[in-house]
Amino acid sequence: AQSVTQLGSHVSVSEGALVLLRCNYSSSVPPYLFWYVQYPNQGLQLLLKYTTGATLVKGINGFEAEFKKSETSFHLTKPSAHMSDAAEYFCAVMDTGTASKLTFGTGTRLQVTL
Amino acid sequence: DVKVTQSSRYLVKRTGEKVFLECVQDMDHENMFWYRQDPGLGLRLIYFSYDVKMKEKGDIPEGYSVSREKKERFSLILESASTNQTSMYLCASGTVPRNYGYTFGSGTRLTVV
User: Is A94 an 8 Å CB contact of chain B?
Assistant: First the structure.
């Protein structure tokens, strides 16, 4: 069974600082990997995804993530945090077999301070 | 844009009531999903469906059932609501190829009293 581990349920950064949200996955086959963002009182919005090809993927709002197979990681980064980035972020893995279920991590709440 | 619409934003029900949560998508997606979201637990899959009248159990199906009579509509049913089903419920839809990811609704916050 696939699983996702997000290190740190809460991360706080200053505005303008680097954002790094960690995600490690467990999968017996190369997975599809996703990052979603959830703003207060809203559903989830897709930030970016890795399926095949280039291991560094760029998403919306200046976020990017790098798939590192050797480390089974898919960490999310943004060079300079903005107040509007405050939200909850979820990493997810999708199996590439017959089922296309998404398995989510427990989420990381990002706080951005002045 | 794909829209996934959940019929209620907030819902309060009494213990033992039968509860229906409705989800409608407008992009002819084959796959539809119901998740519940709880603090510290992330999103957990309850049920999903690949086609009309087809359903599969997810990771936490106990106490729930689903119905998919039309392609665009996927209903989650709590046969006899209990307080431990108080949660945020999120519906999602997607299509093949599977690597497109899913589109989520805004969620229904259900409180069972």
Answer: yes
Compute how many other C-beta atoms are within 10 angstroms of the C-beta atom of residue B85: 18
Nearest residue in A to B91, CA atom: A43
Are the C-beta atoms of B84 and A32 separated by less than 8 Å? no
Rounded to an integer, what distance in angstroms lies between the CA atom of residue B102 and that of residue B106? 13
Task: Please state, in angstroms and rounded to a whole number, the distance separating the CA atoms of residues A1 and B11.
Answer: 34
The DSSP 8-state label assigned to residue A62 in this structure reads G
Output the CA angle B92-B103-A31, nearest 5 degrees.
90
Beta strands in B42-113 (DSSP E): 42-49, 56-57, 64-70, 73-78, 87-94, 103-104, 108-112
- pLDDT tens figures, A27-71: 877 788 999 999 988 889 999 999 888 899 999 999 999 999 999
In this structure, are residues A106 and A9 in contact, taking their beta carbons and an 8 Å threshold?
A: yes
Q: Which chain B residues contact residue A103 at CB under 8 A?
A: 45
Q: How far is CA B14 from the centre of its chain?
A: 19
Between CA B20 and CA B10 the distance in angstroms is: 13
